[in-house]
Structure formats: structure tokens, C-alpha cells
Write a structure and sequence with these properties.
2 copies of one chain form a homodimer. Chain A has 19 helices and 16 strands. By secondary structure, chain A is an alpha/beta fold. Chain A folds into 3 domains: about 280 residues, Aldolase class I (TIM Barrel, Alpha-Beta Barrel); about 70 residues, no CATH class; about 120 residues, Alpha-isopropylmalate synthase LeuA, regulatory domain (Double Stranded RNA Binding Domain). In chain A, helix 13 links the parallel strand 9 and strand 10. In chain A, helix 1 crosses helix 2, helix 5 packs parallel to helix 7 and helix 8 packs parallel to helix 9. The radius of gyration of chain A is 28 Å and the shape is elongated. At the A-B interface, helix 4, helix 9, helix 10, strand 9 and helix 13 of A face helix 4, helix 9, helix 10, strand 9 and helix 13 of B. Chains A, B: Pathway: Amino-acid biosynthesis; L-isoleucine biosynthesis; 2-oxobutanoate from pyruvate: step 1/3. Chains A, B: It is an enzyme of class 2 (transferase).
Chain lengths: ~550, ~550
């Protein structure tokens, strides 16, 4: 049997059913281009005519000249009507696609309860709709909704649905675990029996993650003979999401020897996952398999010293195969080997036996003792190491900030911040309001920096966390603030610690902006803005 | 074969290796209590002696009288030494646990590369360490690190490791997929062969999620004969996380007919998952299987009308089985039973069918929609319910607060708060400094209240947490503040939500003091201080 698998991406259709995922036509076009570069075979663009975004997408995607086939999604014709007169089917034709995904019922319970029609009429709806699109020259992918629940309830009927679709000319018969409740061994058994019951057909699999088994279920179906895999980037989708292509593709390519997009394009996987998460404006879990920021991160000291000897000791694949990389986290549990490898990652000359390096390590340990945590604040650590290496110029000289929050009964709360700095020899004094104190500080600081460093406009804060370090006396205790920032290409994390949450936030904010402007404040770089003054930032 | 599975929770040990997860001794004790209520059989508390938090945890957990067995984690003895003289093993004994988890190497490559010793010495290390702890009367769970990688590389050696552990008296032989790179069918094959090679042993499974297969791999091992499952709440753990018990337990109980914690306790699963995520201060993905906020949420119009006809159409289980609820965006139907039972707990007359109760439930739902979360803020919920029952008198009438933070180069940051209230008919205007803004507010509010309610002196804030609710635009987003307060007898939790962290803190602070003074502001109670004015607190 062939070891070649067709990847069918439905991020732009089923993925947008996920909570918090909403894509404009422009967003969809950007993602389609990226998916095409990744090498997926099918890109399901949406439901033609369902809304103006999808109409625009199907029109404009034709001009991109993609290699992937664009498919449009729709249901089988309405009951008791003709396929030629069905509005949904007409709109699929009008969308200009060469392939259509038609969804039909295969669970008798659903035919009765949801469609409220007869089993025979459902078969006719499937046959007529597929035959009609085939006559018009389209490739047809038939998605058998609730196939596994249907098979378990009434196997004969579920099988007759697939047979009818095949008879009408469907190119692919896709078995959907719509409710996500089926287990891997059940999928394996059912797909195996189907491949012998309908021997000439090409089968596909479409799973959902309600039991945290969507990836395993997909692999089971492939091992049993399915040759098309439907899923989404990062597993976006309704409820618990669709099958996550970012895990399925490397599992198939690297673990099971199937060919999906090829090992060369596999290196774009991490980048694609992060790009899509950025466009969809959904934060990616750090612990996402293969492509997450922590997927190859190592924390424990013993692990780290073993990893440095041979990375196979604690890594199941070489991270670069999927375009990710190893990260060594610095934490209280770890020894200095973490810091050394971190410095080496940054290209710094850092010999752990030298006097200088020992001092830096001691400083970091001292900061950790004070409550700093660099494990989740890579950027602050990098700034520290570069600073210690004498590489950094000052971003500004700090003079003062003031922050005022005022609330009067019956009126909205007001936050204002005032920032006094010296930037590149100029005194700058700015004031700004905000939705909250940190937002006000962020706004005032940006206002002070933007004329000297316009690149500051391209970054924004994307996450903000506060933690009380000593719980014995909460409001008088030290707090640690972690800030995540991002621009279009990357995200980075910074940390601040103080007894005062505003001061800790200020510190993390300043580090975040220093990191964003790192290219302009390294001693080695050419000044792109007004020349900053000498010395290190004191924070 | 028995259908009974032991659940071994390692949230407090392996879970804390996850990026961003950091737990104090207090946090660990709270989670241990919650896990015990959920009904897990083993709670791995940490590594005795590795840091002061773990030392404190093992000391204090003994006073909780939990039913679950507390276990301490450690490595086998160091090479070329004696078990009786090994510091780690000694510290396990000193921790006072009845069960120990000992990790040992089973991959020959690791014995050479990481341990840098001989295969025979590794066997001796395993034998000696287990035998020593067994002589001291402990139950011993042997975690065979990298078992599957080891088996694939050198099956004879991997098997001899388990045999040696058994011979030394280990009660459980746990096969670990430490790097998370093994596939379900491989696990099934290897575990099956082991159960026949070592027929008298009890086997366990410990997996990691690097291929997004940790849940499937665990199920595979159980189906092949493993009877202990190691994992963490919400799948916290190094890199991509450990096997997620919140998905494994319902899969085993509801889908495969095994008994883990029992169907009755299963109803606490969602609550437990959310509680742990709050304590760990890690956002729970909305789409988390079974326990996530979107796990049973329905968005699509067609889905919703089918769901309203029969929820089996798009739900694989009844959400209440795991303590979760259906969310239909058009009409919220479920979830009032927990509020009713809460009200009954407080001795309130709360009939869920009455018009009054329906209004209260709607108000709570509305607040939850705004970002309030009452799962970790019992005291705020109780205040709401009592308020709705007309039981509460006003603590004060709010007029205004102002909060100023000022930092000048070279000088310490200064925080001041000004509070204007009417307490018991008297205008009160106070000012106070603090170590931070919330401390300043706390001090100013106390100053205003203390002459009328001297009991306020007996309580203090003991924990303070801030969570950004909408991460898309971090400093301009809504935040939720959770405050824990305590006096000599008890602790209680309150919540505040606002776009402004200071306003949210104020709200949680006020609730905290209202709860502390509950005895004095209930309508039924005798006034102990100057008589407060009538009406409800407006906050």
C-alpha cells in the first residue's frame, strides 16, 4: 500500500469554529499562502456564500496561483428538492474551486433527529449532490459526518452511505469523528473493515479532540488504510479542536515513514504554526508538541548536563527537523550548565571557568534569590548576559515616573502616568492615560521613545502576569511581573521584581522595549536613531 | 484481569517542571487536599531535601490526614557507594512518607552517557536502593526511566532492569516514556510482552506528550495490562507536559469501563482542574478536553438547534459526568445545581425554581461572563448569595479612592493611597503609605474602618494573584485579582475584575474585609460596633 498521505487543511473553515479564532479575508489569504508553502495538498477555504469574507476569499485566492487545491465546503442538497436548484451547491460552483467538500449524514439517529427525514431520502440527497458536482467537473471529497457513531449504531446504514457516495463518483470517502468521542482501537477496527468492504475507494479521516485523542485516532486510521488526513494548524476548531496537523505531520513523516509534505518542507512547520497563531491572534501554548516554545526546553539540572553531553538523552527528535530549537531554561533547580549553553546560543564568548563568567553566574543566582525567574524571561536574561559582556549601550537615562489611579463613586476609574527621561541627550517629559496603570505607563514610555526609536511601534505587550513571592504578608510582599511582548516575527519575555507591583511592571516594560530595540543599542551596531549616550541602563 | 486502576498524581513533582509552573509549600498543600478529595490513590509531593518548600510540604502534609498515599521521589543510590549512606535515600526516609518513587535507568545508552557507569553497577544501584527502602518498611514504586527507548535499543537489558527491581521487592514496576517519543502501538506491544515475561508483577505507565500522544499511550498500556497510571492535572510537566489525568480518568471510567476514582468523584474533575490552574497561576486552555470552558460549547447555528433537540447529536458524553456544563451561546441552561448546593451549604433557603433564585443565578452567570470566577473565590460568592437574600447591611458608603506611585532616580519608590468613605454615618478621609499600591490601599482602608470595626485588626491578606483575562492586548485587557485573607482561625478567598488592576484589587480587598466582618453586617446579628447604615454594599 502507498506510503503517501494527502494533507487536507481546514484551518480556514473548521478552524474558525474555535473559540477566539476569527479571520478576515486578508488573514485567510495570508494563511493560504503559508499553507501552500508548507506543501499541504488541499486547503479548504470556507463556505461559499455564507458570508462576505468567504466570497472575497474565493475570488482573490485564484490570483495567488497556489499549488494546493482550494476546496469549498457545503452540505448535501436540502431534503425533497433537486440538486441543480440547491442554493448551496450553486454557490460552490460559482466560487470557482476545482474541488468541493460535501458533508452528509451517516448516523441514522442524526438523519431522524437533525435532518428529520428518511434514511432513503438521505441516501438520495448524497447521491444527487455528488453526481451533480461531478457532472460539473469538480473533484468531490465526501465527508461522512458522525461516521463512527453511525457505524456503532447501525453499521449497515453507515456503510451504505459510503457506498452510495462512491457510486455517485466521490473521489474521497472521509470518515468523520464529529463528536470526538471515538477511541483509537475502535477507529482502527472500523477503518480496516471499510477498506475491505469498499476495496476500490480512497479513504480519509477527520477527527476532533474531545478525548485528547485526535492525533492518535488519525494515526490509527492511516495505519488501517486512510490516505487523506483532515485537520487544522495548531488544532484550532470547535469545542476541544480538530486534529492538530502540526503534530500529525511530523508523527507520520518522522515516526511512521509516510510522505506528506516531505522532510525539506517539514522544517517550516514551527514557523507556520507560529505565523498562523499570530494571524489568528490566539496565543500558542508554550508546551505545544513539536512547535511550541517549550517543546524542546530543559529545566532540571541533571537533565541539562546530560543534554549537553548528548541531546538524544532527553529529546525524541532533533528539533531542527521541524524548524524548532533546543532551549535550556535557567531556574533554581539547575546548575550553571544552563547559563553557559544559553550564552553560547547567543553567540557570546562564555567560558564557565573564567573569573568573569563566575561573577555573572553569581549575579544571576543572586537575582534568582531575590525572586527573579529567568526560566520564563529569556529576553531579560539575554540583556543581562550582554550587559555583563559590555555590549550594551543605554536606551535612556531614567529620571522619574509617577502613576495615578483615581476612582470616584459613580464615575469610571482613571489611570494616568507621567514619565521623565533623558533620551539621546534630550530631556523628555510625557504624560498619558491608559485603561489601567501598566497601560498608562506603557503609553507614556512609548510616547517618550517613539521619536528616537520608531521601531517601538511594531511591538506590543501580549501577556502580563503577576505573582506574589512571599505569601506571608501578601500586599507588603515582593511581587514578580512577567511580561510577554511580540512583533510580527517573534515573542519574548521579560521580568521585573519589586515590593511594588508598579515598579516591577516598569522594570519588565523597560526590558521588553530594550529587547525590541536590541539591534539599536548593541555597541557593535551602527546607531539608527539619534546616538544614545554611553553606559549601561540602570534598572 | 482486574478493571481497577491506581491513579498516581505527580502534579506536585513532575508537574512543577512545566514552564511557568511554580508552587509554594502552601500551594502544594492546597492541591494535595484537593487531589485527595478527587480520590487519587497516590500523591507524589516532591523531592525531599531538594529545597525548603519540599521539606516544609512533607512535614505539614502529615497533619492533613489524607486518604491518598503521599510519596517522595528520588534517584537510586549514587554509583560505587552504599545505599545506607546515600543522602537522597536518607532524606526520603526522613520525610516520613509511607511510599517512595525511585527512578532508575533502563536504557543502556543512558547508563553509559548520563550515569557514566557499567550496566552491572546500574543493576546493583537499583537492587540496593529498593531493597534498602523495603527493609525500612516503605512501599516502593520503581520508575524505569526511558523504558521504551531502552527496550527498543536493548530489550534484554531493559527487561533485566525490571526483573532486578522486582527481585529487590519493588511493589510497582512503572514503564516511563521519558522523552515522549513512543507511539501507542509500540507501547501496546512492549507492555503486552512484559506482562508475560514478568507475570507476577504490577505494572504502571508514565508518559509524556511530545508527540501529542500521552493520553493514547497511557490507554494503550492499560489495555495491555498496566494497572497504575502516572500523570498530572492539566498535563503540566516538562517540555510538552506529562500525561493529562483530566483526560485519562474520564476516558478510562466512561469509555473503557475501568474504575479509577469512581463515577461519583468524577463529577469533581472540572472543578479540580480549574482549582489547580488557579493555584498554579497558569491559564487553562479554553479548549481543554473534558474540563475546558469550551469543551461542551456550541457555536454553529445548525449544531445548536440539533443540540437543543437532543444533546447526543454533538456531545460525546453528558458534560455533568465530569462536572462540566454545556454552553450554548443563545441560551444558558445548565450549571445552577452547584450554586444551589453552595447556598444550601451556607444554610440559605434557596429554591432553584423560584423567581428570586433564577435572578441570582442569572446575575452570577453574567458576572462569570464578565470574567469573575467563583471557583477559587468562595467568600465573594457567599457575599453575593447573602446579599441577594437581603441578609447584608452596608459596611460603608464609598465616595472615592486615589492611589499614587512615584519613583525618582536614586530614591526608593513611594506608594500612597487616599480613601474617602462614609462609615456608620461618619465621613472618614484617610491617607496611608504602603510597600506597594495594594498595600497602601489596604492600609488606608483599614485606617478608615478600624475605629468602627476593631476586629479588622485580626485579619490580613495572605495571597494576591493577578490574571490577565484577554491576552490579545495585555496591558489594556481585563484582569482578575484573587485575594486570599486569613485570621487565626480560617482563610477565605475573594475576587475582583476590572480593566484596571487597582480597581480589581480594591474590589477584592473590600470583599475580603466584608467577609472578615460578616458577623457584624448580617441583618440578623447584633451590632457589635457603631450601628452601620442600612442597604447593600454597592461595589
Amino acid at each position: 500500500m502507498s506510503k503517501s498521505i494527502s494533507i487536507f487543511d481546514t484551518t480556514l473553515r473548521d478552524g474558525t469554529q474555535g473559540e477566539g479564532v476569527s479571520l478576515s479575508a486578508d488573514d485567510k489569504l495570508k494563511i493560504a499562502k503559508k499553507l501552500d508553502e508548507l506543501g499541504v495538498q488541499y486547503i479548504e477555504g470556507g463556505i461559499p456564500g455564507s458570508n462576505s469574507k468567504d466570497i472575497e476569499f474565493f475570488k482573490r485566492v485564484q490570483q495567488l496561483g497556489l499549488s494546493a487545491k482550494i476546496t469549498a465546503f457545503g452540505s448535501t442538497r436540502r431534503k425533497d428538492s433537486k440538486a441543480e436548484q440547491d442554493g448551496n451547491l450553486k454557490r460552490i460552483l460559482e466560487s470557482g474551486v476545482q474541488a468541493a467538500t460535501l458533508v452528509g449524514k451517516s448516523w441514522d439517529f442524526h438523519v431522524h433527529t437533525a435532518l428529520q427525514t428518511t434514511l432513503d431520502e438521505n441516501l438520495a440527497m448524497i447521491y444527487d449532490s455528488i453526481a451533480f458536482l461531478k457532472q460539473q467537473g469538480l473533484e468531490v471529497i465526501f465527508d461522512a459526518e458522525h461516521f463512527f457513531d453511525g457505524y456503532k449504531n447501525n453499521a449497515d446504514y453507515a456503510v451504505s452511505v459510503l457506498k452510495k457516495a462512491k457510486e455517485a463518483g466521490a473521489d474521497w470517502l472521509v470518515m468523520c469523528d464529529t463528536n470526538g468521542g471515538t477511541l483509537p482501537h475502535e477507529i482502527h477496527g472500523i477503518v480496516t473493515s471499510l477498506t475491505s468492504l469498499i476495496p476500490q475507494a480512497q479513504f480519509g479521516i477527520h477527527t476532533h479532540n474531545d478525548c485528547e485523542l485526535a492525533v492518535a485516532n488519525t494515526l490509527s486510521a492511516v495505519e488501517a488504510g486512510a490516505r487523506q488526513v483532515q485537520g487544522t494548524i495548531n488544532g484550532y476548531g470547535e469545542r476541544c479542536g480538530n486534529a492538530n496537523l502540526c503534530s500529525i505531520i511530523p508523527n507520520l513523516e518522522l515516526k511512521l515513514g509516510y510522505e506528506c509534505i516531505g522532510e525539506d518542507r517539514l522544517k517550516q512547520l514551527t514557523n507556520t504554526a507560529r505565523f498562523v497563531s499570530e494571524i489568528a491572534n490566539v496565543n500558542m501554548p508554550v508546551n505545544q508538541p513539536y512547535v511550541g516554545n517549550a517543546a524542546f526546553a530543559h529545566k532540571g539540572g541533571i537533565h541539562v548536563s546530560a543534554i549537553l553531553r548528548d541531546s538524544r538523552t532527553y529529546e525524541h527528535i532533533v528539533p531542527e527537523l521541524v524548524g524548532n530549537k533546543q532551549r535550556v531554561l535557567v531556574s533554581e533547580l539547575a546548575g550553571q550548565s544552563n547559563i553557559v549553553s544559553k550564552a553560547q546560543d547567543m553567540g557570546l564568548d562564555f567560558d564557565s571557568t573564567s573569573e568573569h563568567s563566575r561573577k555573572v553566574i553569581e549575579k544571576i543566582k543572586d537575582l534568582e534569590h531575590q525572586g527573579y525567574q529567568f526560566e520564563a524571561a529569556d529576553a531579560s536574561l539575554e540583556l543581562l548576559l550582554r550587559e555583563a559582556g559590555g555590549e550594551m549601550k543605554e536606551l535612556f537615562t531614567f529620571e522619574s515616573f509617577k502613576m495615578l489611579v483615581e476612582k470616584t463613586a459613580g464615575r469610571a476609574v482613571v489611570s494616568e502616568a507621567f514619565v521623565k527621561l533623558n533620551v539621546a541627550g534630550n530631556n523628555v517629559y510625557t504624560a498619558a492615560e491608559g485603561n489601567g496603570p501598566v497601560n498608562a505607563l506603557d503609553n507614556a514610555l512609548r510616547k517618550a521613545l517613539v521619536q528616537y526609536f520608531p521601531a517601538i511601534k511594531e511591538m506590543h505587550l501580549s501577556d502580563y502576569k503577576v505573582r506574589v513571592l512571599d505569601e506571608k504578608d501578601a500586599t507588603a510582599a515582593k511581587v514578580r511581573v512577567l511580561i510577554e511582548s511580540r512583533n510580527i516575527n517573534q515573542s519574548w519575555n521579560t521580568v521585573g521584581v519589586s515590593e511594588n507591583v508598579i515598579e516591577a511592571s516598569w522594570e519588565a516594560l523597560v526590558d521588553s522595549m530594550r529587547y525590541a530595540l536590541l539591534g539599536q543599542i548593541l555597541q557593535t551596531s551602527e546607531p539608527e536613531a539619534a546616538s544614545p549616550s554611553q553606559g549601561l541602563v540602570n534598572h
